[in-house]
Amino acid sequence: MQDLIKFLVKELADTDDVDIKEVDKGGFTDIEIYMDKDEVGKVIGKQGRIAKALRTIVKAAAAKQHIRCNIIIKERGKGGEVDEAADTFDGVED
Predict the structure, then answer these.
(1) Superfamily assignment of 2-83 in CATH?
(2) What is the C-alpha separation between 86 and 63, in angstroms, rounded?
(3) How many angstroms separate the CA atoms of 82 and 78, rounded?
(4) 3-state SS record for 18-70
(5) Torsion angle of C-alpha atoms 42, 59, 21, 52, degrees rounded to 10
(6) Whether residue 42 has pLDDT greater than 50
(7) Using CA of residue 69, residue 72, residue 73, residue 76, what is the dihedral sign?
(8) What confidence category does residue 27 fall into, taking pLDDT thresholds of 50, 70 and 90?
(9) Dist. CA 50–CA 36, nearest whole Å
(10) Helical axes 2-13 vs 49-64, angle rounded to 10°
């Protein structure tokens, strides 16, 4: 799953500086994507459309493996500190 996400995010953001961390939370797996503040907008897209498409692709791939997962996009500041980006997914679809 990490390889798929890393490939998609790297292609969208045109950067290799992407870290992905999986956190197991009961029946869900949170997949946290860490990237530079300047690149987060490219992955989120206008009104979150690209992030939603990314989540749809990952959700389909996870369903084949019988995994339930959430995608959380986090940005790193210039000092390396992590802030949660404006577009996150809490596991509940609209």
Answers:
(1) K homology (KH) domain (3.30.300.20)
(2) 26
(3) 10
(4) EEEEEEEECCEEEEEEEEEHHHHHHHHCHHHHHHHHHHHHHHHHHHHCCCCEE
(5) 20
(6) yes
(7) negative
(8) confident
(9) 17
(10) 160
Confidence of residue 78 (pLDDT cuts 50, 70, 90): low
> Rg (Cα) of the chain, in Å, rounded?
12
d(CA 22, CA 31): 5
Which of the four pLDDT bands, split at 50, 70 and 90, describes residue 81? low
DSSP code for 4: H
